[in-house]
């Protein structure tokens, strides 16, 4: 065959290949037109490139401000379409009123146990059963019992802060809060006493640090070929880090067996204890009791759903108070008035309303769950919008929290936005830090208690102030709610 013929065939093959590739990536890009839903112009990557270029927070704010009067808009992550809901009544409809049509989250990856069994990932009836068994664990009475575990860990934190204050060193609040939050998790959910502030390289901290880092190289493989999960598993491929997960499971099993052996079961008042009780209580009801893997999974939740969120809110609240001495002073005046020298506990922190307003305002500005997602399990029409079966629905929490019509001057820290009067004047779905509806954050009350106990104790003894390393206003990373320049402050002792 002559050279030019070979070249021609190669060229034609290349053109065909590019054509097929583009068709595969764009085959459904007319979907929103068919659904009569507006959508920004797409490229062959859908809208993925927009998010990559501007980052998730800026993209959310810009798209939301462009489309909010249209109630919804269409979005493509490559070929995966999603309806983004901007209208707050429609948010309520999806999360609450028509919840049965949007029971699941959008996760397309099928994980292996125990990660498969964590509430965040469960679907349909399986989710309903586990949520109804675990829910009683988070009632006020039971959370109250867990408060002692928080209080014990706060003492270690105070000691650490005292050292920093005496040496005059600056501290990065996200790191400190992360270590503290992990110690509380070890204590409440794994039956361990660790002090990561003193010993950041302890085995539990190291393994927990590894377990939250999925194998990012494998994620696209699992997303593109979900049906081959069984094969990947046989080949030993796993998105979640296997060894750290095995260590955490062994730790839990050891604690469970020890409690059964020593007869201390039911007397330690931590989450693990309550799960063991929940397991027994459900033996008598019609529901299937929790399996051991499901028990493991519920303790793991604290690491996957509680660690990053708790440390984000704790660090930003303290950071924002350091940057706003007038608000910090008001929070400390409230503490002095209500508590005096008394150590904060479950009962007393209930009266710290201004502190709660500061925490809420920090969560408004930097919501750890900056986007909520659901999957439509049955085609449905709501308020003129058609949601086809299997459509992903996203709620842009960060953008809603920064909508100037709901929150004037949205980049300014103003805890007064959360007075009872101001709350009443706003749409109830304008503030969504813990999500909404039956699938909202199950740990919400425990999280608020832990935050109030910890922050009240810190502010009773110390005053966080800005320091040489403080950069304020802060700028967030493109994809994670964390300050690019850190959250640096200095700690000053109170008289
Ligand atoms: C300040 C701290 C926290 C914040 C801001 C937060 C926020 C959230 C958000 C936004 C969701 C999604 C809700 C939705 O889709 O409507 C969620 C779900 C969840 N959170 Fe939290 N969370 C926090 C702490 C915790 C803690 C300490 C736990 C520990 C138990 C926890 C356990 C969960 C679980 C299990 C879910 C999934 C619930 C389900 O699907 O049924 N969270 N959280």
From TrEMBL:
It comes from the Eukaryota. Its cofactor is heme. GO terms for cellular component: endoplasmic reticulum membrane. GO terms for molecular function: heme binding; iron ion binding; oxidoreductase activity, acting on paired donors, with incorporation or reduction of molecular oxygen; steroid hydroxylase activity. The chain crosses the membrane at residues 6-25. Belongs to the cytochrome P450 family. It is a peripheral membrane protein. This is Cytochrome P450 3a7. PANTHER family: CYTOCHROME P450 FAMILY 3 (PTHR24302), FATTY-ACID PEROXYGENASE (PTHR24302:SF15). The keyword NADP does not apply. Keywords: Endoplasmic reticulum, Heme, Iron, Membrane, Metal-binding, Microsome, Monooxygenase, Oxidoreductase, Transmembrane, Transmembrane helix. Cytochromes P450 are a group of heme-thiolate monooxygenases. They oxidize a variety of structurally unrelated compounds, including steroids, fatty acids, and xenobiotics. Heme binds at residue 441. CDD domains: CYP3A-like (cd11055). Signal peptide: none annotated. Coiled coil: none annotated. It is found in: Endoplasmic reticulum membrane; Microsome membrane.
């Amino acid at each position: 065959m002559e050279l030019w013929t070979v070249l021609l065939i190669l060229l034609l093959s290349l053109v065909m290949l590019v054509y097929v590739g583009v068709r595969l990536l764009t085959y459904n890009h007319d979907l929103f037109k068919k659904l009569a839903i507006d959508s920004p112009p797409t490229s062959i990557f859908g809208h993925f490139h927009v998010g990559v270029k501007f980052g998730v927070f800026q993209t959310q704010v810009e798209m939301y401000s462009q489309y909010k009067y249209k109630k919804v808009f269409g979005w493509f992550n490559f070929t995966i379409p999603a309806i983004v809901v901007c209208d707050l009544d429609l948010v309520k409809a999806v999360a609450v009123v028509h919840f049965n049509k949007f029971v699941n989250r959008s996760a397309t990856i099928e994980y292996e146990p125990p990660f498969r069994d964590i509430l965040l990932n469960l679907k349909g009836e399986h989710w309903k059963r586990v949520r109804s068994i675990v829910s009683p664990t988070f009632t006020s009475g039971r959370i109250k019992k867990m408060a002692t575990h928080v209080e014990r860990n706060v003492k270690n934190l105070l000691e650490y802060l005292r050292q920093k204050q005496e040496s005059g060193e600056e501290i990065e609040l996200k790191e400190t809060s992360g270590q503290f939050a992990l110690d509380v998790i070890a204590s409440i959910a794994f039956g361990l006493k660790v002090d990561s502030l003193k010993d950041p390289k302890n085995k539990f901290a190291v393994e927990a640090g590894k377990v939250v880092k999925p194998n990012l190289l494998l994620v696209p493989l699992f997303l593109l070929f979900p049906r081959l999960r069984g094969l990947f598993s046989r080949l030993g491929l796993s998105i979640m880090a296997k060894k750290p997960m095995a260590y955490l499971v062994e730790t839990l099993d050891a604690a469970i067996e020890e409690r059964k052996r020593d007869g201390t079961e039911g007397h330690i008042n931590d989450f693990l204890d309550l799960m063991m009780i929940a397991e027994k209580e459900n033996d008598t009801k019609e529901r299937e009791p929790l399996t051991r893997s499901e028990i493991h999974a519920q303790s793991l939740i604290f690491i996957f759903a509680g660690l990053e969120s708790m440390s984000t809110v704790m660090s930003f609240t303290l950071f924002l108070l350091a940057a706003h001495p007038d608000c910090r002073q008001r929070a400390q005046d409230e503490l002095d008035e209500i508590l005096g020298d008394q150590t904060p506990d479950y009962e007393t922190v209930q009266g710290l309303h201004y502190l709660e307003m500061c925490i809420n305002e920090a969560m408004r500005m930097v919501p750890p769950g900056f986007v909520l997602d659901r999957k439509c399990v049955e085609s449905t029409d709501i308020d003129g919008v058609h949601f086809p079966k299997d459509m992903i629905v996203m709620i842009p929490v960060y953008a809603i929290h920064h909508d100037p019509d709901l929150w004037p001057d949205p980049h300014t820290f103003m805890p007064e936005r959360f007075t009872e009067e101001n709350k009443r004047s706003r749409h109830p779905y304008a503030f969504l830090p813990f999500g909404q509806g039956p699938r909202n954050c199950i740990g919400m009350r425990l999280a608020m208690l832990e935050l109030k106990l910890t922050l009240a104790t810190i502010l009773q003894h110390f005053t966080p102030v800005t320091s040489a390393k403080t950069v304020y206003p802060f700028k967030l990373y493109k994809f994670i709610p964390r300050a690019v320049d850190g959250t640096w402050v200095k700690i000053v002792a109170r008289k």
